[in-house]
Amino acid sequence: MALKFIQKTQEDCLLGVWEIDEEYEQLHEKVLLDPAEEQRLASFRNPARKLEYLSVRVLLQQMAGPSARIVYDRTNKPYLQDNQYNISISHSGKLTSVLLSRKKKVGIDMEQMTHRISRIARYFIHPDEKITEDESKKRYHLYIHWCAKEALYKICDKNALNFRKHMVIEPFEPVVEGTIRGTVDNGRIKEAFDLHYRRMKDYVMVWCCK
Description:
This protein is an alpha+beta fold.
């Protein structure tokens, strides 16, 4: 079963995760695509990109029904054709995640912890942020910060945000699952957000509904 879970995370906020364990034809059979979606799918040359595209739509249709269709605005931000839900999407490795809300803005990011993220930490960690000195937790801690800022970037509609300068995650001790506080301030946007995070083996997922 490729569907890992669909769950209500808070009022008017639905989170789903799909694990891609099917071959292309198996996954294709599970989803209803319109001609435009079939054409877009055929345009991808990378087999992994095709699986990602299909997994997002399989998961979405299980969450919102077979008529749900994703379209994109000029900034490549996804939204649903019938505007039934606000949507945010993330994919990494074998996992795909979708976050939906009828009334709230949403942002989600998921990353597989396969990179030496400490090498680029100086580009996204704000001077006021605190990273644990515990070497066994540091990598995970950095990934939570990165995913949180990606989620904030999405929920703020990608409005000229610099991860290091304009976003601050309040100090926290990383555990398997928790809630953290993040602030965005770039002169035009000044707002605080509650973000939720979860570790799933070697994956980190952070999401926000507001």
